[in-house]
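Question: Send over one sample?
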Amino acid sequence: MSRLPLRFGVLSYVNCLPATLALELGEVGTDQLSLRRGTPAQLNEAVRTGELDVSVVSAAEYLQNPELYHRLEDIALWCDGPVRSVCLYSRLERDQLEAQPVHLLVTPESATSVALARILAKKSRTIPFTNLEQAESAIREGRTQGVLLIGDTALAPPSWTEKLQIHDLGGWWKDLTGHPMTYAVWVARRDLPKSRLQEARDILARSCSWGESNMEKVVEEAHRRSGLPRPELHRYLTGIRFRVTPESKAGYQIFKEKFLAPNLVRAGE
C-alpha cells in the first residue's frame, strides 16, 4: 500500500527558490510530495493547524511554538549582512529610529521581519498595513514614521519609496550583533512519524544540492516570476544561505534571546 504524499509548504517569494525549485520542478521527491505555496504568515498557519506536514516557517513562529514542531536543523534561510528583501523605508535616520518612539506600518506577511524591526527600533509600535496604498498615504501624511516591506515587494519596491531612507534590516542586525540573521527555518509536525521525518530531511538536502548545482536555472525562474534583471537576481540569490553553520547558529541564538525577552514590545502594542 503506497503512502500518502508529504504535504510540503514552499515560499511564494523568489528568495527560497535555491532550496525549493527542485521540488517545484519535480527534480526531487516527484511522487512523495504535495506542494503548497504561500507567504510566511500563510505557511506558519497552515503547518500550525496541521494542514501541512513539512514547511518553511518564520523563525519567530518556531520560537513561539517549539512544542508543535520538529525542527529540521540542518537547513534555514539566513543571510550574513544586507539581505535586500527585508527593508524599512523611512524619512528618519537609523539612529533616530533606534532612539525615539516611532510608529511603523509593517507587512502582514511575516512574523520574523516584524519582530526584527521591533528589536532594532527598540521603541517602535508596529501595526500591520492592509495594502500598499494605505502604507503610501500614511507615510506621505506623516501618520507613520516607517513602512516595512519584505520579499519580492522589497526587491522591487513601489515608486513612493524612492525619496525615503532604505534601512536593510539584515545589514542593521549585522552591525548591531556582528552575526548573521536567520529569517526562516524548516519544521515538521510534531506527530510526523520518524521515518517520514527522515524522508523530509533527505528530500530537502537533495533539493538544496540541486539548487546549488543549478543556479542558472534558479535565476532564470526567479527572473520569470519577478521580471528583475538576471545579474541582480544572481547577486541576491547567491547571498542567501541555506546550510546551517556555526556562525548562523550563533546569530540565531542571539535573535532567540532578544525575541523571547519579556520587554520586547509585541505587534500592536
